[in-house]
């Protein structure tokens, strides 16, 4: 039997999120998930942890449907409606940014990619994905075509697809493969963590192309999740940077951890709900 072990919501893109008891899944993703992001006031464009790694050291928790609270590793707290939010967040990050709520999909200029850090596209991609010179880049054709032009699919702040899942078996397998690393779910940022009875390994890799009912929602598992430089970075104040994690993922897991999903039928998922394959 497969059950929901944890439900994670990330109110601000690339910041540490919160574990919740239940969440509503909509066609565009989890309600309350990635409702805010930062815009780079120095280079332009919405930015995540691939470009501003200090984002991953901050935590965000929802206050209500319209406001969040951001906490630094030092314990400094600031609300999204504070009059000096942009200045204080910039100081926390050491980079000038503006905190932006999610905007409509037709505000295309808001979502358009900012300039890269290199004119060499291969060098830019290697930096984004954290690949060494002798390591392969992921197959970019799996990503939505809109990401060639936009930082995120317009109307969302998700990286590529609405929902990301992984299993407790995957976390256990990573722990066994990397005994000198701290394997923590916060490093991998899934929305749903499923507890399976399929034994060790990464069973979710075999779910691509399948349809699952989880709680009252139905998900279509569409792709394995290629991992980028973010899994190597410091998370919050207690999870250190660790390049070994990505080296293992690239070398031994064909670059992937977890799977992406579309929401085929909206619904509610709760911790403890049964997950059943239906197609």
Radius of gyration: 18 Å
Tally of individual domains: 1
Low-confidence stretches: none
Task: Report the span from N to C terminus.
Answer: 16 Å
User: What would the principal axes of the Cα set say about the shape?
Assistant: globular
Number of strands: 17
Supply the CATH class: Mainly Beta
Side by side, the strands of the main sheet go 1-12-11-15-14-13-17
Which whole number gives the mean pLDDT? 96
Q: Can you describe this structure in just a few lines?
A:
This protein has 279 residues and is of the alpha+beta class. It contains five helices and 17 strands. The protein has a seven-stranded mixed β-barrel.
Comma- or semicolon-separated keywords:
single chain; 279 residues; alpha+beta; M1 Pyruvate Kinase, Domain 3; 7-stranded mixed barrel; 3-stranded antiparallel β-sheet; 5 helices; 29% strand; globular
